[in-house]
Structures are given as C-alpha cells and as structure tokens.
Amino acid sequence: MDELFPIASVTASPVSEVAPLAVRLRPRGLEEIVGQESLLAPGKPLRRLVDADRLGSVILFGPPGSGKTSFAEAVACATKRPFTRLNAADSGVPELRKILERASVHFSRRGEPTILFLDEIHRFNRAQQDSLLSGVEEGVIRLIGATTHNPCFALSAPLLSRSQVFEFTPLSATQLDQILSRALEDSERGLGRFQCRLDPLARQHLLAAAQGDARRLLNALEVAVLSTPPSPDGNIEIDREAAENSCRRKMPRYDRDQDEHYDTISAFIKSVRGGDPDSSLYWLAKMLVAGEDPRFIARRLVILASEDVGLAEPSALPLAVAACQAVEQIGMPEGRIPLAEAVIYLATLPKSNSAYAAINRAIEAVEKGETVSVPPSLRDAHYAGAARLGRGVGYQYSHDYPEAISPQDYGIVPGRFYEPIHRGEEKEMAERLKRWRALRSSTTREPEGRPSSPEKQ
C-alpha cells in the first residue's frame, strides 16, 4: 500500500518555489476554490455530497482553468481517502490495472474506497473506459474524471450511467480578479514578496485575455512579474504594455469538432435568424479568429438564406451564393468582407421559413401518406398512341386563360403544403395565390379564345 497515500500528506508538503504560480496557488481545500458556486457553495449539490462523504464516481467537464483539478484534490483532502491520479494522455490499461489491484486490496482490508482522479479522461478509448467499470460499480474506486469535452460524446454510455456528471463553467471577471488579488498578496505561495503594483489597464487586459481560465491568468501574471525589472524603490510596476507582452495572442476557446464548434455556429445561425447583426458579426469573428474554415461558414449562410429568409426576400439566396463563391475564389483574409456583408444583409431581412416547412410537409406526405397517382390529363402525351390511352386528354393549357390560371386540377389540394407568411415579398405572393385560388375554383371560366400551343396539349 505504499503507492497509495492520503492527499493530505501531499498538500501538507511545501510546493517547490520553482513550480508554476498556478500550481503553487492551487486551493488546499474547498473553501479556497473560487467559482462554481452553483455546485460548491455550502448547501449546493456537489458540496453536500463531499461534506457528507457520500460522493460517488463523478465526471467533471468544463473549459481549462475552471477548477476541476483543484476540486479533485480538495475532495481527497476533505475525505482523507487514499488518493491517486493519472493523466489519460500518458497512461493506459496496464497502469490502470495496477491501481485497481492495489485499491481492491485496500478495500478488502479496510472497506475504504480509493479516490482515482483521471485527468483528460476523454483520451481513453471505449475499451480503456470499460476497464474502469468493475472498480466503479463495486465501489473499490471513486472515480473523479475530468474532461474539457462533452461527456455525452466523449465517454461511453456504461461509464456515464455509473457516474454523476457536473459541468464547470468559465470563471467570471470578478472571480478571476479575486484570484489575481490572492496571487499578488500571498507571500508564501504567490507573488506577495515581489511588491507588485498592477496598473488598472494592465489588470483589465489580463482579466480579458484569460477568458475565464484561472491557469492562463496566473501564467500571464507570473511572466509579467518575473520579466519586469523593479523600480528604484524596489517595487515592480506592471503597466498595460507589460501585461500585453506577457500574454500570448488571445485565442478564443474553440475546437473543430466538439462543443465550442457546434455551440458557436448554433449561436451564429440563431443570431442571424433572430435579426441581430451585431451578435451575428461577433460569432462570425470568433469563428474566423479561431481558424474555422470560412467555406463552412459560407455554406451555412446559403442554407440559412433558403431556410430562414426564404421567400420573404428571394434575393437572399443569390447573394449568399455569391458570398460563398467569393470566399472560395479570394480566400482569407479578404473573404471576411463578403461574409460580413452577407451576414448583415441576411440578419436585417424579413424572415420566412415557409419553403423549408412546405418541402418537409410534402416529403412527409410522400413517405408516410397514400401515393397520389398522376392525373391522366397531366400525363405525358408526346408520343404516338398517347391519346388512345387517355394521356393528356382534358388538359387545360394555362396560357389560354386570363392571368394564365386555368381551372385545372393538378393532383394536390391547393394550400396543403405551402402556407405563405405575410412578411416581405411573400406577402404579395400570398395575396396573388389567394386570387388565383379564387380564379381556379370558378366553374364558369372559359378559354380566352387564343389558339393553344400544340406542344403544350
């Protein structure tokens, strides 16, 4: 049992002074964790489970620097359970089996489960995840899995069914500011011994650049302090320039095939659909800065032009197609301009989903309803013997009638699928259809007397 140890014995040991600030300042208990109040404040669900020592296996998912690792170590400290940790990126089934064997021995001797903190658990494949199941189900281990990926997609269903899932959210600017103050004031684990003074603009920049990530904030702060020479009075003055130099180029949280990708494109489409050009441009900019394929964005705009603007403004589709072609031809960064033009135009147009709804209704009727046969009068009559078979007989050529509307029955009751929306250009279309239906229903209408085109019979 030498390899299993209470976390308290580890946290009681001094952390190396050369360890990164984010490691040195890591909370030593639940009371020091900043953020996640909806889960960890006294009386909240996750906190109640820890305080009662009833925490089972849990999956924590959320962005980097939101406190998942801090929570795992604080739990082990609070419960005084044997604790061990693995990172799924550099571990596999052999290491896992050794831990499970030792945990099983300890459980059989003392009836006490071992806390296993498995960081980046999404990196385990399905077979590796399944190797955890017996230990979790028998209570030999209490798994705390941490992941930045949505567990509904990244983890196996059997493991999810045996675990509780808690979502950690990015830290707010206020919460990050609290962590920043703690780092500057703490002389034992933080930077208090350096006597730093942070310019308000520098503080604002660091908080904005962190994007809710406490680790990113502390890393940038440490670089700024250690790279700035002290003033004659011994203080270290951090101005806006020093803060900017300490941060890598700000990159939004984004991924190419996970939650951030799908959530951002969803917000983008819904903002354009909802008529909010400013929000639409922000989500567009976020995707472009993060390196999203602009052709993907352009294709979605073509879909939106048909699905959401539709017949309320028929010019939306050709403009979206033109933007798509422009992006393909000129590339980036200039491609951002036709994309922005299309986004603003589509966002500010009247909206109609009538074409989208109509084709869905028609497809459903074809797939689930009774098949409608083509009426004899509408069938092809352009071959010898067609008339003897009744093909095309009785067809009423539209152009022989006023407004080119004949009383012809075309097989489907008018209005069954297409329901026009009274906005934009479609309002005029709706009025025209209403007039045509009245004309078509007239039983006394006669052709205008012009000779019919033979090929149209």
From TrEMBL:
One of the record's GO molecular function terms: ATP hydrolysis activity
Membrane-crossing residue ranges in chain numbering: none
Keyword Methyltransferase found: no
Entry-linked InterPro entries: AAA+_ATPase, AAA_assoc_2, AAA_ATPase_RarA/MGS1/WRNIP1, ATPase_AAA_core, DNA_pol3_clamp-load_cplx_C, MgsA_C, P-loop_NTPase
Cross-referenced SMART domains: AAA
Highest taxon in the source lineage: Bacteria
GO biological process: DNA synthesis involved in DNA repair; DNA-templated DNA replication
Basic and acidic residues composition bias: residue spans: 443-457
Span list, region Disordered: 432-457
CDD domains: AAA (cd00009), HLD_clamp_RarA (cd18139)
Domain AAA+ ATPase: 54-171
Keywords associated with the record: ATP-binding, Nucleotide-binding
Classification via PANTHER family: ATPASE WRNIP1, WERNER HELICASE-INTERACTING PROTEIN 1 FAMILY MEMBER
Summary of the function given for this chain in its UniProt record: DNA-dependent ATPase that plays important roles in cellular responses to stalled DNA replication processes.
UniProt similarity note: Belongs to the AAA ATPase family. RarA/MGS1/WRNIP1 subfamily.
Protein name: Replication-associated recombination protein A
Protein source organism: Methylacidimicrobium tartarophylax
Higher taxonomy: Bacteria, Pseudomonadati, Verrucomicrobiota, Methylacidimicrobium
